[in-house]
Records
---
Amino acid sequence: MSVLVFIDQSEGQIKKSSFEAASYAAQTAEKLGTTADAIILGTVTDDLTTLGNYGIKKVYTVADAALNNFDAQVYAKILSQAAETTGADVVIFSNNTSGKAIAPRLSVRLKAGLVSGAVALPDTSNGFIVKKSVFSGKAFANISISSAKKIIGLNPNSFNIITTGGTAEVAALTVTIDAPKVTVVSVNKVSGEVPLSEADIVVSGGRGLKGPENWNLVTDLAQLLGAATACSRPVADIHWRPHHEHVGQTGLAIAPNLYIAIGISGAIQHLAGVNRSKVIVVINKDPEAPFFKAADYGIVGDAFEVMPKIIDAVKKLKGVA
Amino acid sequence: MKILVCISKTPDTTAKIAFADNNTKFATDGVQWIINPYDEWYALVRAIELKEADASTVLHLLNVGGADSEPIIRKALALGGDEAIRVNTDNADPFFIASQIAAVAKEGGYDLIFTGKETIDYNGSSIGGMVAELLELPYISHATKFDLEGSNAMVVREIEGGEETDKVALPLVVSCQKGMAEQRIPNMKGIMGARTKPLKVVEPVAAESFTSVASYDLPPAKAGVKLIPADQPEELVRLLHEEAKAI
């Protein structure tokens, strides 16, 4: 019996959400009185021994360049072999796009109950119960898993990483690798921008900004803070901003440390996508905007007057001329 | 070409979320039910567009749910589709539901199976992947664009910080999200036509369940907003830095 965590990588580098998943796996293992191992597929440039710092004992690698082409079917078959070899009863994923594609397939292969969207460590005091986000962030459900094997998909930015100062052992794993049925034709990454789902800080704009030509108020602040940019649904629908920036119930649900909403009234559908943010700042000229009820800090004021002053204050704070 | 679109019944996006029976059940009093938006706006509408482009396409809708799902199934049929199948069960375990979909799909011999990327109530993102594994088919999740090129599909899917274009031979399973299609409103002709379209009810096949809801919690209420005067925005920056330690 042990815990296995899938480490997701992109272009040879471990994704940030996987460090969180690694720490979660190690904490779960400690609760179960066992140890946590990790597996990473494809060719990797990062130093994998550093996963020990997150409590991982051993990192298994399948360093086959063919695996840089993502096919969830191929990945799931390898992971089921890895779970068998390592004797894992619990498999952890970050609930990101890769995790959401692989975990359900692995669940079928291992006959393992899956809880995706977990926000806390499993409660093992009476059975095995995992708390997950439901109703698009408006509530939590405590899900009981009854199967012997279990899979958990951890929502990004929902668990406090604990570092242990350890060093992980790295070992190659021999597995059967199927030919992929999915061929990756091209990858188009928005370079230089922080991925929205992994961002610590998100600066978001709504219709109150009046037009795409005013978005420098959002992007300038985001750049200063190393933040990702987002928008409300109407803004994406009228093509002021690209669809992938839409956060809310039918867009992306995010949980950054800090969410700054500028000119967004805070419709219930928008709140559903952002209410797991730790600190919410709302800047809106309408004092009746529902968003203020969900906010930690707010300014009732005109974004066109307030934002330049905020940007200047942040520049001063960061020591930028 | 045969397409199967899986549709789920969810509470309306503005529904009040509350729980009953000692926080073990969703309180359904006064709740309006809708087709899960990802299933309707993206999976179903894209499938309808594919049928419009090739009239020989057969489009079936599938719901796994109780008789109370029938109004949303009729609404989906009003948008399009030739017929619907309802697997009669209230079991909500993802593996159980996926097993039902896989059983229907196997019998129907579909070239394409579309689902929404997740339901807005359970937020599982699990069904499509499970169905694909049960049928041993490829699976593209979080698709934002889908086109056919002969017997291949060209699919764009969301990845962290960008998008990826994949080429994959049919048959396959795709989970759909924003970008795939634009929301449609059913017209009167569609609504009238939907009344007479076949809606077949079948009993579930035997399958295991691995999970169940033990209880629900609501998030703790916020302490209340701290308002900063509009003429002192630098005070906000100071508070975010010194008090919230967020920047």
---
Amino acid sequence: MGTDLAPGDRVRTRATDPAGHTRLPRYARGAVGVLVERAGRHPLADDRARGVPAEPQPVWHVRFAAADLFGAGDHTVTVELWQEYLTRVEEDA
Amino acid sequence: MSRINDVGGMAGFPAVLEEPDEPPFHADWEAHVFALNGALIKRGVYNLDEFRDAQERLPVEQYLAASYYERWFAAITTLLREKGVATAAELHGH
């Protein structure tokens, strides 16, 4: 994952769930949301929990429609997610 | 594979009960557990993510039956054993 993401980009979260600690909750897996803003740079928690050296990488506020996550609801849900969890969704894809 | 902590959006749990004027701790031992964890992380014995991971891999039945700070204590003792800081016998007071 490069560092070319920008606010407003549509992204899809990782759909798989590797063994061990992660900060990508199950309800937000494989979902499409919109980048709101950068939330600093931090070492990936998944790696730190395994004792693996981790360089800081961008963390994003990602906004989802609640209906996309839970099948109902008019509100949005914003989750802080590491860039490594995210893949940009191309506009015409 | 999801672990037992990852229950956001799952049906079947009762509503979260808010306690008016909730104190930081409900018993003195909870404050000791809180302080112990902070000291061990500051000393570099383990990091915050290892601590969260240790909670998440508690046996499911233990995780669900434990209170918040009981989970903390179980994770701390797990990590102290794994990091070689204390033996199981020492942790049980033998």
